Amino acid sequence: MFVYGSLVLWNFLVEEISTRILTVFVAVLFLVRVLQKLKEANSLPPGPWGVPILGSLPFLKGDLHLHFRDLTQKYGSLISTRLGSQLIVVLSDYKMIRDAFRKEEFTGRPITEFSTLLDGYGVINTAGKLWKDQRKFLHDGLRHFGMSYIGSRKAQMENRIMREVEEFLSVLAAQKGNPIDLNPFLAVSLSNVICDILMSVRFSHNDERFRRFMFLIEEGFKLFSSLEASFFIPILKYLPGQRQTREKIAKNRVEMAQFLQETIEEHKKSFDPSHLRDLLDTYLYEIQKANEEGVGHHLFEGKDHDRQMQQIMGDLFSAGMETIKSSLQWAVLFMLHHPEVMKAVQEEMDQVVGRRRLPKLEDLPYLPVTESTMLEVMRISSIVPMGTTHAPTRDLQLNGFHLPRHAQIVPLLHAVHMDPSLWDEPEKFNPSRFINSEGKVVKPEYFLPFGVGRRMCLGEILARMEIFSFFSSLLHSFEICVPAGETLPSLKGVAGITISPNAFKICLKPRPMEWDSMGTIRPAGSH
Ligand code: HEM
After folding, report:
1. pTM of this prediction?
2. Is 481 annotated as a binding residue?
3. How far is CA 484 from the centre of its chain?
4. Going by C-beta distance under 8 Å and a sequence separation of 6 or more, which residues neighbour residue 110?
5. Most confident residue range from 56-60, 131-135, 347-351
6. Nearest-angstrom CA–CA distance, 321 and 476
7. What is the interface pTM, i.e. ipTM, of the complex?
8. What separation in Å is there between the alpha carbon of 15 and the centre of ligand 1?
9. Which amino acid residue places its CA nearest to atom 41 of ligand 1?
10. CA 170 to CA 164: how far, in whole Å?
11. Which of 48, 116, 322, 527 is most buried (most C-beta within 10 Å)?
12. Whose CA is nearest to atom 42 of ligand 1?
């Protein structure tokens, strides 16, 4: 009896002690974790803490890039803040951005609701080896098809662009000076340039297929924006309405994928390895080579080939069309606001290019007023105000602060372009800031419309060629004015991933070319 009683007591004590030890152990673990979090929070770059769960979300006012700019003015050029569950680190000093983004460890992409929707396909939202291989391949491929400052391929690219410029100008001339919104005309012409390079596809201005494709892209942007809240507070994705939005995104993606897949299938049928027509063919070539060698291709890392090609085409199209369209719309808008600059650009071209032909890329070094005007448009509009969001590939230190692996790193390009310590009166539109005392165009190292470092824009050369060709030809061919009775359109843009102007209308009055007064058809080789 005594032995039994002792055993019961012993067991009771052991259980009691174990429970207590376990409780103490859990409490210590919890405390250590809380201390770790506090230490981490203390070593993060400075910035507003906000409120529990929501972070700074309730205090967001206006456009995100302007909100971040206000914070950097208050807390310094490296700040951190929480938006819901996401830790955001903003860099606004150009040297800091440049030095950080040169390093491999800043080339990651954050894992967000948005990136999971894309399943790691494409180039823009990938990271690691797959991104690196993809980027190198695309860089070489785009060069091969003329995205280069030198060589015969450059001439090919210029011809391709000028074919679209001429069609653009003739469609505009057919509007006979009536008020028009340039947006749909630019959309077709610019899409044709990029689609030709990617997959030898061109659209006409009334093409139903193209309209549907553009509609799906625009709707996609809107649908993604309406999911934004759940990117920051993931639990919101279970709200009614959010599921339907996701389903709609998936449905639209299938429709766009079908459109792209049709082109991929046509390419597969007519594929000739000795004559690669476009970027899509270069992918097919790589796949064929890998199949013959019986190995998986490093460009796909076990991913579905067709889906990867679809996403690459989609990535380059969406990165390459909207950005140039917005830049050109900003350029026109600034010309309406600064007719004296428009006049100076036109006079320079009349003198250097003459009235017998359209401007060519080789004229550019002799057109400092035109070039500096385009640069100033890019600076002041900063159409990709926050670049793309990067993520550290591991926990890092930057300027003595801790950047955890899950942080989202934002390069605030807008703040760099509006920094009064770098630019004199940055809010003022002043192209001559890019011209030195010898009359030459100079681009300071803190001019970063295409970002900087390892993940900087892949399409910079094409973008510069297109912006020059469309802008200079438009101004060479037409006087641009506000429709009679209408007020000057606002310079306040609509901010999303890019900033574009609100829709506005213009009237175009032809500036006679010499072949018009001669009553002849445009002479062959005049452009
Ligand atoms: C005015 C036109 C354009 C501007 C201002 C622009 C600007 C930018 C910026 C700021 C970035 C992010 C850089 C970073 O995060 O560090 C970017 C990335 C990118 N751009 Fe552009 N871009 C333009 C046109 C184009 C064109 C025409 C193409 C395609 C042919 C293109 C393809 C890309 C791609 C693929 C990336 C992502 C690169 C990567 O993730 O490694 N862009 N661009």
Report:
1. 0.89
2. no
3. 35
4. 86, 389, 390, 391, 406, 407, 408
5. 347-351
6. 23
7. 0.99
8. 63
9. 455
10. 10
11. 322
12. 459
